[in-house]
Design goal:
The chain is built from eleven helices and no strands. The protein has 233 residues and is an all-alpha fold. It folds into two domains: 30 residues; 148 residues, Lysozyme, CATH 1.10.530.10. Helix 7 packs across helix 8 and helix 8 crosses helix 9.
Length: 233
């Protein structure tokens, strides 16, 4: 293919390139290499590690203190809320506050908006009918609204009233606990089965597995509240 005018021959370009390379080597020896500037180390990972260590230390100390002092068991397993409401309602209806707290723990786990599968509502899982009965029998003041069971004060008032009524009409606290779950009519039937036989206990005649388990859970919860709150509710 013909060369364009004015362009240097190929051997001339090659020779020029070699000359330039030799000249560069002669002036500076080896050709200089570009060395990138060292990057500044980032310190934020170390800062993060220090923060995490501090947080972990504080959290570990808190957990140790909580576990060793029983605070964790009180706050997680057996909390206590609405103490004033519980004390006042229990005083009016002559109910043991420890028992009331155990019932609340087992019924709703202290959730005021709890609803059961059968429609019982609130902290102590009550129905409108049961509450209306407490009013009609003169046990609860009519100023309390039997339909306002999501209100803690209302619910605790009616719940303690029911407990007081059951205790007044039954022989033992265990009977009142079982009747709170299964109904007083069912409890009367069970009582006829074990009567006054000292060798028979209530658990032996309860034919509702749910009520038998409920009775045991309330007993355990009451014992836990007595142990964790020895100065009272």
């Amino acid at each position: 293919m013909p060369r364009s005018q004015g362009s240097a021959p190929r051997h001339a370009r090659t020779s020029a390139t070699r000359s330039t390379a030799r000249g560069s080597a002669a002036r500076g020896g080896k050709a200089r290499r570009h060395t990138p500037a060292p990057q500044r180390r980032r310190r934020w990972p170390w800062v993060l590690l220090v923060v995490l260590a501090l947080v972990g230390g504080v959290g570990g100390t808190w957990l140790f203190q909580a576990c060793s002092s029983g605070n964790l068991e009180r706050s997680v397993m057996y909390p206590l809320h609405y103490e004033d409401l519980v004390r006042d309602a229990c005083a009016r209806h002559e109910v043991d506050p420890y028992l009331a707290c155990a019932i609340i723990k087992c019924e709703s786990d202290w959730h005021p908006e709890a609803v059961s599968r059968v429609g019982a509502r609130g902290l102590m899982q009550l129905t409108d009918v049961a509450c209306s009965d407490m009013i009609s029998m003169g046990i609860v003041d009519p100023s309390y609204d039997a339909s306002n069971l999501f209100d803690p004060a209302t619910n605790i008032e009616f719940g303690c009233a029911v407990l007081g009524y059951l205790q007044d009409n039954l022989a033992t606290e265990d009977e009142a606990i079982a009747a709170y779950n299964a109904g007083i009519g069912t409890l009367y039937r069970w009582r006829e089965e074990y009567g006054d036989d000292p060798e028979k206990e209530l658990e032996q005649v309860i034919d509702y597995p749910e009520t038998a388990a409920y009775l045991q859970r309330v007993r355990e919860a009451k014992a836990a509240y007595q142990r964790l709150y020895p100065l009272g509710i």
